[in-house]
């Protein structure tokens, strides 16, 4: 090894690669160094210590960008992909999803989360905010796959008004004591209220208080459908879900509010005052016919908008590039204004905004000193030519299939059709067997 000394940490130098820089601008022929779990160099010339890198990656014809952060997911719902189709949200949820979910075991959830992560990293995503249950299985999957997750447990309280008597109370305490900060900080525990319509006021207030005590992030579904908002106004003295949750103190902690499709100016005032991140889910909102969130207005106001895939039962994919394309196109259609949601805004929503929403302040940008969460696209194919505006190509032309390498904290988790950290064939077989078993059980109609 000539020139400079190795630090002993694994290191890789991407050379002659085009780059989406920290201002979401396109730069040609750059060099990006990775040492250990961090970005050690970003520049247009070779670093002075170039010889000290273990490996080199020839980036010609390729594009390096920050990895993607999915701000709202339900990874084990991969089991339900293709199971409950073409239904509106309430019957989709009550008649199909809930009975299926009652039969999911920890092992089922493990296969499904492995499979979900394999799909995510295939399309450049390394971190997701996941609301579900089977917490140990999900955390083990995240740890072993070497990705990141803000894990939260969907809390529902229909009759019980004492949070400490609900099973999620003990589960949350276990999640925080055993998993928060695990896997070198790649796993973070979040608190969660599933939604206003699946909870009551005393429980929401108690969960909000416990979230403040823990200094945790809150993850909650908010105003996904028009009927949810109308029902909330009936249940809670004319208040919208945003007003109700704010009154309960839910937004006094850093919050990721999924959907926010049916929010008005007063709601957006509250969300903005509290610095709430809206996790927009364009595919899910269209597929379940929930509607179109006022994303252009949110961006105009300077609200933080991140991007989520939601679950594979309502999307039906964990491909953030698909949702990024939809984010940048459907709200032009719904607002009848082609100037709204620029490619840079869509890219930022899918990267930096998601990282910040997850409390990962040193993630989501290609910047020296930041965590090495990166993806590389092979942009030599016909759909990415000619190059007039690479940002436009990445958002409007890419399908995510161009991703050839995904790295999380300096570790390659996907490269050229291979998943070094996940046994994908085992995850596929396990998920297929689990979903067939559950469908057979449901067909027999036996109670569980
Ligand atoms: Zn959701």
Tally of individual helices: 15
Mean pLDDT: 95
CATH domain topology of the largest domain: TIM Barrel
Percentage of residues in DSSP E strands: 15-25%
**Shape, principal axes of CA atoms:** globular
CATH superfamily of the largest domain: Metal-dependent hydrolases
Tell me which ligands are bound.
Answer: zinc ion
Radius of gyration over all CA atoms, rounded? 22 Å
Task: Give the end-to-end Cα distance, rounded to a whole number of Å.
Answer: 63 Å
CATH top level of the largest domain is Alpha Beta
Q: Given the helix and strand composition, which structural class is it?
A: alpha/beta
Number of strands: 17
Question: What is the CATH architecture descriptor of the largest domain?
Answer: Alpha-Beta Barrel
Low-confidence stretches: none
The residue fraction in helices comes out at 25-40%
Sheet having the most strands: 8 strands, mixed
Please indicate the count of domains.
2
């Amino acid at each position: 090894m000539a020139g400079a000394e190795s630090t002993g940490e694994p290191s890789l130098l991407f050379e002659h690669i085009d780059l989406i820089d920290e201002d979401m601008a396109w730069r040609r022929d750059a060099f990006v160094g990775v040492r250990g779990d961090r970005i050690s160099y970003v520049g247009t010339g070779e670093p002075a210590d170039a010889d000290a890198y273990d490996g080199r990656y020839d980036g010609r014809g390729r594009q390096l960008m920050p990895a993607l952060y999915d701000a709202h997911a339900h990874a084990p719902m991969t089991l339900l992909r293709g199971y409950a189709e073409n239904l509106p949200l309430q019957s989709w949820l009550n008649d199909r999803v809930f009975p299926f979910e009652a039969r999911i075991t920890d092992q089922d959830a493990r296969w499904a989360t492995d499979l979900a992560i394999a799909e995510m990293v295939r399309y450049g995503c390394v971190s997701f905010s996941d609301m579900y249950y089977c917490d140990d299985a999900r955390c083990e999957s995240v740890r072993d796959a070497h990705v990141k997750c803000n894990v939260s447990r969907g809390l529902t309280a229909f009759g019980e008004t004492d949070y400490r008597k609900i099973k999620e109370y003990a589960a949350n305490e276990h999640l925080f004591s055993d998993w928060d900060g695990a896997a070198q900080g790649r796993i973070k525990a979040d608190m969660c209220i599933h939604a206003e319509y699946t909870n009551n006021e005393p429980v929401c207030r108690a969960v909000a208080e416990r979230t403040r005590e823990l200094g945790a992030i809150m993850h909650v579904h908010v105003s996904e459908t028009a009927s949810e908002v109308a029902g909330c106004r009936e249940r809670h003295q004319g208040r919208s879900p945003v007003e109700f949750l704010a009154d309960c103190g839910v937004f006094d902690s850093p919050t990721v509010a999924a959907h926010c499709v049916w929010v008005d100016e007063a709601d957006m005032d509250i969300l903005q005052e509290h610095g709430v991140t809206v996790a927009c889910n364009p595919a899910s909102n269209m597929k379940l016919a929930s509607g179109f969130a006022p994303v252009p207005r949110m961006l105009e106001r300077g609200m933080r908008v991140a991007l989520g895939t939601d679950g594979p039962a309502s999307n039906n994919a964990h491909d953030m590039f698909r949702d990024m394309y939809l984010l940048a196109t459907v709200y032009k259609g719904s607002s009848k204004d082609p100037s709204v949601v620029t490619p840079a805004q869509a890219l930022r929503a899918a990267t930096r905004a998601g990282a910040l929403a997850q409390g990962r302040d040193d993630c989501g940008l290609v910047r020296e000193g930041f965590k090495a969460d990166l993806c590389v696209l092979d942009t030599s194919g016909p759909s990415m030519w000619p190059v007039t505006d690479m940002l436009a190509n990445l958002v409007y032309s890419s399908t995510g299939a161009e991703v050839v390498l995904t790295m999380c904290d300096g570790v390659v988790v996907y490269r050229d059709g291979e998943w070094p950290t996940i046994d994908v064939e085992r995850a596929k077989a396990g998920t297929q067997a689990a979903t067939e078993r559950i469908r057979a059980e449901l067909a027999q109609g036996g109670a569980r």
